[in-house]
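Supplementary notes (optional reading)

For those who missed the lab, this is the record we used. Protein: Iron ABC transporter permease. Length: 326 residues.
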Amino acid sequence: MRIVNGCILLLAAISITFAAVSGAYHLDMQQLLALILRQENVPVQEQIVFWQIRVPRILAALLLGAALAGAGTTYQGILRNPLVSPDILGVSAGAGLGACTAILWGLSIVYIQLYAFCGGLMVVAGVWLITRRVTRHDPILTLVLVGIALGTLCGAGISLIKTLADPYTQLPSITFWLLGGLSTVTLRDLCYAAPIILIGSLPLFFLRWRMNLLTLSDDEARSLGLNVTRLRFGLIVCATLITASSVAIAGIIGWVGLVVPHIARLLTGHNHQQLLPMAMCTGAILLLLTDTLARSIGTTEIPLGILTAFVGAPFFLLLLLRGGRQ
């Protein structure tokens, strides 16, 4: 396990260095060291590129990658289904509907992010309230089905807004936001999102050993003295806060919360005490490398959601094929 942790830390350092020097404006190692050490002979253009563009994107990729992977691991554990992601309860669809509404009304980027955050929380709150009213069925299955239904409803709302939006100004903005990306993320955005993500992540980190109990049936967990409903609700709230904050500043970035937990399980096993930290580290590295690739492989930056889908969808199919053989 120490070897695996050491390799992850080494890979993280290499990934950060690679992201710092790569892009349309290439920097070599000497220039990078001069920028980090704040030497006086560094050109102003290089300082702007590094400190105002690349550093915020690197920090955002690390933060959001860890957040989405941690939320995905939590959802898969508490819902006892390895094929679910943070989108399963409709948080991304709700955030997308909120953001699209703000864009349609011509609001500023701050309000777009606020509407996205509130939209994601409202949908998950609706999912939980409806699930509480349905008492005759399996609560986990009901939770997932209600989430899918409300997510579909939000998707219909997004399609309606696209129809009503101005095709020359608003529609491109809506489409670009829904594809996800870190090109517009600033340090101010991170200052807003980071505290919420931290508040949501700390309970997950300290309660990760109890997630192992939620992988048992509800009756078995209750026999061990666990308040299943309260714990599941608390973990869902924390994971939803993390996901909504991430989607609010970066748009919808799919597949990270689905794929990364499986990669982490190959490295640590199914014990959430090791699985959750490993998934968060792996998610941070994966999203950082993907974002670096998105802004480096062509003259036009590729939306991050497209690249994560190209990586995640084949991996998802492999999981299905592997499960079918077993």
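If you only remember one thing from this example: The chain has 14 helices and no strands.
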